[in-house]
Design a protein that fits this description.
The chain is of the alpha+beta class. The protein has helices at residues 12-76, 79-86, 90-108, 190-197, 252-255, 257-302, 306-311, 323-370, 372-390, 393-411, 419-437, 461-473, 508-519, 528-538, 543-556; strands at 114-121, 126-128, 151-158, 161-171, 180-188, 206-211, 216-218, 231-238, 243-250, 416-418, 441-446, 455-457, 480-489, 494-501, 561-567, 571-579, 596-598. The two termini are 84 Å apart.
Amino acid sequence: MKIHKKRFLFLLKKQFLFIIILMTVCVTSIGLFTSALYQKVHVAVVQENMEIYFSQLTRSVDAMYNTCRNIAYSLSYSQLIQDYLLAQTSIEKYNAYGQSYDQLTNMMGLCTYIVDIAVISARGNTVSVYGSEKTYAPLDITALKEQKTLSSLGRIFVKNKECQILGMPVYSLETPYTSRIGTLFLAIDIDGFFLENSADANYIPGYALSDNSGRMIYGDREFTKSNASDFQVKQYPIEEADGTLYMMIDNDIFTAAGNRIATLQLFCMLILLVLFTLIMLHIYRPLIRSLQKLTLFMRNVATDNQRNYKDGIKIDQGIFGSKEISEINNSLNEMLLHTYELNHKIFENYTHMYEMEMNNTKTEIAYLRSQVNPHFLYNTLTMVCGMAAMGNTDEIIDTVSSLSQIFRYSIKGNEMVPLEEELEIVKSYLNIQSYRFGSRFTVRYELAEELLECLIPKMVIQPLVENAIIHGLEPSLEPGELLIGCGMNPEHGYLAIWIFDTGIGMEPSKLSQIRKELQRPVHSANTIMDAYQDMDSENHDSIGLLNVNSRMVLHFGPEYSLILDSQLGIGTNIQLRIPYQTASHQLSKPEGKQNHVSGNYY
C-alpha cells in the first residue's frame, strides 16, 4: 500500500503575514524589554549620583560660609580692629593700622576663596587688604542695621573679580549690640569656589545660589524656574550662606541612554533581519525567480510584442512553489489568447467612438458660441436706436464700427486665439458701452505682457465683461470700477484670467445657486440645444456665465476651473483657470468634461 504524504498549501499572503507578525513581535518584545530595563536602572543610578553629588556640594558650601562666618566673628571682636575703628588722632590711627592690616591678611589665608577683607568705621577709618572705601561704597548697608550676623550684600568687582560681598556690623566690646562702630566686609570668589568644587563630577549640573533678598550670587536666575519642562530643579536652603542653593538637572541625562538602547536595539534587529532574510531566501527564492520571469514577460507584452500573445509563458517553480503563481500562469495564458482575438475589435470600436465624441464636441462648442452673439447684438442695437433718436451720428458710426469688428472677429479664424486679440475685442466692446454708461464706471487692466501670446478660446472674456456690467455695475447707484487682469500660477502652471467689478454683488443664496448650476454636467438633456434652453429658462440673468463655462468645459475638461465669488454691496469676482499654452506649445484635450467651481481667489 502506497502512503501519500500529506501536503499543506497556504496562500502566499498568509505566509508573508505570518513572517511579518513573527518578526514584529520578536523585535518589539526585545526593544521594549531592553529599553524599559535599561532606562529604569539608568535613571535610578543617575538620580542617586546627583543626590550624592549635590549633598557633597551643599556641605562644601556650608563649610566655606561657616569658615567665613568664623573669620568675621574673630575680626569683629578683635581688640586690634576695635582700637583702629575707635582711633581718633592720626597717631592712634597710624599705630593701629599696621597691626589691623596684618591681622586681616593672616585671616585671608584661612580661606582661599576670600579675595579681600575690609573694615570701615563710621568715622572714616578704613583698612582693607586690596580694596578701599570707594570699592564698597556702592553697597547698600542699610539692611545691616538690624543684623548682628554675616549677611549677603550682592556682587561687586574686587581685584578684577566679580565677588560676593558678605557684610557684618561691628559693635563695641564695651557696649555690645548697642554701639555700632563700623562694618566688616568679606569679598568671596564664589565663581572660583563652584568651578573648583565641580571639577571631579562626571556630569556637571547647572546650579545657582541666591541670598534671602532674592539677589543671584552665582548662576542664572532662569535656573530657579521650577516649571522648565526640559529640566528638573531642586533647591536646598543654606543657613550658613543665608540663602538658597538651586540645582538644575538636564532631563537629557535620564534619556541619554536612549542612544545606547537604540544602538542595542538596532544590533538585535539587524541580527533578526539577517536570520529572517536567510529563511526567506531559502523559502521564497523560487517565488522571487517566478515573479521576475512573470514581470519580464508582462513588460514584453506592454511593448506590444505580438509574439508574446501567441506563445504565452511557462513558469517552472521547482520543488518548492506557490499555488498562486501556478494559477496566475494558467490564467494569464488564457487571457492572452482572448486578448489577441479581441484586440483589433476593441481598437476599431475605440477609434469610432473617439471620432464621434470629437465631432459631437465641435458641434456643441460651435452652437454655444453662436448663442453669444444674439444677446450682445440685441443689447447693442437697442443702444444704437437710442443714439439714432438723439441724432448722434458720430457715436453711431464709432459704435457700429466697433460692433462690426467684434462680429468679424467672432466668425473668422480658429477657435483658439492669442489673449492679446481677445483683449482687443473686449476693448472694442467697452468702447461701445462707454457711450451707454459714460462715466458710470472706470476700467483698469492688470496684464502681464509675457502672457499676451497665450491661447484661449475665442469670445470668452467679452461675455463675462458684459455680465459684470449688466448685472453688477449698471444696477449700482455709485460709480464703480471694472478690473480685467491675467497672471500665471508658477506652481501649478495654469493661466488665470479674472474680471472683478465693484457693483452690487450677489445675495448668498443667488451665489450658491449659480455655483450649483456651474457644477452641473455640460448638458443633461438629449441635445446641446435642449441644454441651452434649460439654462436660458432657469438662469436668464447668468446665461453668459453659464455659456462660457460650458464652452470651457468642452475645450479643456478637468484641466479647467472657474472661480466665482461675490459679496452683496462689495462686488463680484470671476476667474478662469485654463492650461497654459501658446502657438508653439499646444496641449491635447484631456479626457472627461467636468469642471471645478470654487470660491477662493487666485
